[in-house]
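Question: Hello, beginner here. Any chance you could explain the protein record under this note? Any guidance would be welcome.
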Amino acid sequence: MLSVCPYNGGMKQIAVIGGGAAGLAAAVRAGQMVRTAGASVRVSVLEADERVGRSILRTGNGRCNVSNAHVEPGVYCNADFVEQALRQLEETYYVRDPAVADEEQLPGLPARNAVLDFLSGWGLVLHEEAEGRLYPVTNKATTVLNVLRSAAAQLGVEERVNCRVESVEAPAHEGGVFTLRLADGSFFRAQAVIVACGGTVARDLLQGADVPFVNPQPVLGPLRAHMAFVGAAGERGSRKKKPIDWLAGLNNIRISCAVSLLREGAEVARQRGEVLFRKYGVSGIAVFNLSRFAQAGDMLSIDLLPDIPSQQAPLWASRRHQLLHERYGEALTWEHILQGLTVPAVTAVVCAAAGARPETKFAADDAAALAQALKSIPLQVDGVYNKEYQCQVQRGGFGVDAFTPTCQLRTTPGLFVVGEALDVDAPCGGYNLHWAWASGLLAAQGAVDFAL
């Protein structure tokens, strides 16, 4: 026989499924609004894990890249929907918090931002780093989680851990309640539900809803790849059974460069930043961002001279040869020409890509080959590496056309879907967490309105 979650003395319920960033933001915001309204509504977070917020602790290498100082909808997948949602949040957040809206804006601070005001309103202090990345001033992800959990506790939000929801059933009639069936055989009833768990878990919860769903693919992670050439001079086209493993010699070497993702010769995307070579392929922020679009069989082209246009690279190489030839004379080698530009391990790869060896004499007519190799070291993509543990987010989820800008399912009033459960993702830099906070806040406002 199924047991029923008690109604806390007849109180209405808002259920938040998932205690990650989006779920905790939604729970705190809903609790805040309920208290302001003096309403008899209980907010509960139902988390399948043994604790809430574990995903927050993993972000930013444990530092938590909370947001970005320059959030633009255009960086997101399904940018039009994100733009509508973010605009909706800015238009409604301050109306519901007149005290915050009336605060004097201190000089030198950025324009109002609902997400940042929400977090700072509970005491979180942030600092800005390169490219607008915002981190807690403590540089600890635990600080972010502690602030959110403390806020939730202060507002009376209920945390239910080790509580796995297996399905969400819509009300049988207008004015009815949602039924959440739990793994332990009990069920939980609520006037409004916020689904804040990503991936196929969210899909399984809403099996009865006819909503387009894009199967999630882990992204923002390293790529498995191999060098798309065999060896050095005299070895191209050889029939050696075991080609040289160039990546093994580059393992753990970092370079600053630009990387292009190519498919059938056409550029799909390009990123500039740091690349970290690994035995299995490549990592680093630039690669993470390209992983959002990469497919097995695509090519990566590493550009070691990103500030020099391709058409000018041969002239640059020729002038470098002239300069260094004056210093070294006839003793000038490929190693000399690359010294000061690349570390020895990278020098060996550049030479191999050009069909030369580091100790080979460098001649004037080698400038074109040098330029080509520096502008395009080719690697072939084999896939995303170690998807489960290395990737930061998942691309895919419920199609956004089925939802209002408040993240409410159009066909099921009172049911909201947020964060990674929607087909919204962005590059590294705090954008994905910003969407998690923002969508959680939007859904909370809508859920409280609906429950009341």
